[in-house]
């Protein structure tokens, strides 16, 4: 039987190992796609994967079992509970201009860009494509130079060919695609959730490992209903809040 594959984790020796492993595995479980298998690897395999002892792994799994995310069965194995999923999202309506305004006002450094295989968790957005062009950028406050967020954008290759990297140092990807590339954007689906800073996010944003961050995912569609860009942005939790104003 095929087993679920958790994300990797770089451990911080200043925090309890079982806690870090449980939080990493918890995020992998809640972020899995519906098509992924429900069966977890054995304790030994998981311990090897995370580089911890079997006793530490057992303690981490016990925590997840207490939360109701997994169930353990003698001789059968450990399984993700089918009900283990994120809560239903709150859907809000707004304009593309409002989203562009929210993303503007900071200078960005392009860390890297280039063609990569379509990430497994984005495959549903890019059917029929083997590769996307990935852009990784770090945004900082202009006055202090302090990092505020970092972004990954996965863009369709034929559109990426027309993107000027200089534009990405001062403009949001949404505005570049719409105004410079000429994409007729019809809608953007936004998801904002609380997460813990992984090692790369902690390094880039200069925050402690596993500290709270806001994780934004924006899926941009053109007029034909095709996904043209998926943005994943990690915001420092100590610098941002999520506020919505609704007119009655």
Unreliable stretches, pLDDT < 50, 5 or more residues? Answer: none
Order of helices and strands: HHHEEHEEEHHHEHEE
Summarize the main sheet: 6 strands, antiparallel
Strands, total number: 8
Name of the level-1 CATH class of the largest domain: Alpha Beta
Number of helices: 8
Question: Summed up, what is this model?
Answer:
The protein is of the alpha+beta class. The protein is built from 8 helices and 8 strands; from the N terminus they run αααββαβββαααβαββ. The protein folds into 2 domains: about 15-80, Winged helix-like DNA-binding domain superfamily/Winged helix DNA-binding domain (Arc Repressor Mutant, subunit A), CATH 1.10.10.10; about 95-235, Chorismate lyase-like (Chorismate lyase), CATH 3.40.1410.10.
């Amino acid at each position: 039987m095929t087993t679920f594959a958790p994300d990797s984790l770089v451990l911080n020796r200043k925090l309890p190992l079982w806690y870090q492993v449980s939080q990493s595995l918890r995020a992998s479980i809640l972020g899995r796609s519906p098509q992924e298998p429900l069966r977890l690897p054995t304790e030994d395999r998981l311990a090897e994967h995370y580089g911890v002892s079997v006793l530490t792994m057992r303690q981490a799994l016990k925590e997840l079992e207490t939360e109701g995310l997994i169930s353990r069965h003698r001789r059968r194995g450990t399984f993700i509970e089918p009900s283990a999923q994120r809560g239903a999202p709150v859907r809000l309506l707004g304009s593309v201009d409002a989203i562009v305004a929210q993303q503007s006002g900071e200078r960005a450094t392009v860390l890297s860009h280039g063609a990569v295989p379509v990430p497994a968790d984005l495959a549903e957005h890019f059917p029929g494509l083997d590769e996307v062009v990935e852009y990784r950028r770090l945004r900082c406050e202009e006055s202090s130079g302090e990092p505020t967020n970092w972004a990954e954008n996965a863009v369709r290759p034929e559109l990426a060919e027309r993107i000027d990297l200089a534009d990405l140092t001062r403009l949001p990807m949404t505005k570049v695609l719409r105004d410079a590339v000429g994409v007729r954007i019809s809608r953007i689906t936004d998801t904002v959730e609380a997460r813990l800073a992984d090692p790369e996010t902690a390094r880039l944003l200069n925050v402690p490992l596993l500290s709270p961050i806001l994780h934004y995912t924006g899926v941009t569609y053109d007029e034909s209903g095709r996904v043209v860009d998926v943005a994943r942005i990690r915001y420092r939790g100590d610098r941002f809040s999520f506020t919505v104003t609704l007119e009655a």
